[in-house]
Amino acid sequence: MNDKRSKTRHTVSEQRGSRTDRDYLDRVTDDEIAEAVARDPDAVPVGLDWSDAVLVVPPKKQAISIRVDEDVLDYFKQQGAGYQRRINAVLRSYMRQMRTPKKRRKRA
Fold it and tell me: Is residue 65 part of a domain?
């Protein structure tokens, strides 16, 4: 049985209420885009050399349950999205510091 009903596909940006002016994009020429990029002081050159790029695979994460003080958690959450990643970064920094042998200070 063939389903003859039409289906509409929406991009993620359309589903989230994109502010993209699609009519403008339909009528702008490549030359106009190039001119606008040339005038943009924040534009970054596109011709990057990726031949020496190194693929970095992030370490596998493990979901755990951990108890922390409420004010500590609130502090990280107040910094915005990615608070779990920042907590992980702090723990990693501590781990590296503890693994590094301490240098002895010379006495004067």
Answer: no
In a domain, 88, yes or no: yes
pLDDT 10s digits, 33-70:
889 888 998 887 777 788 888 988 988 999 999 999 99
Scored b (16 or more CB within 10 A) or e, 19-39 reads eeeeeeeeeeeeeeeeeeeee
Structure tokens at 30: 């490549």
| Secondary structure (3-state) at 62 | coil
Q: Rounded to whole angstroms, how far apart are CA atoms 90 and 97?
A: 11
CA proximity to 89, closest of 59, 53, 65, 57:
59
- What type of residue sits at position 79? Q
79 located within any domain: yes
The predicted model scores a pTM of 0.45
How many domains is the chain built from? 1
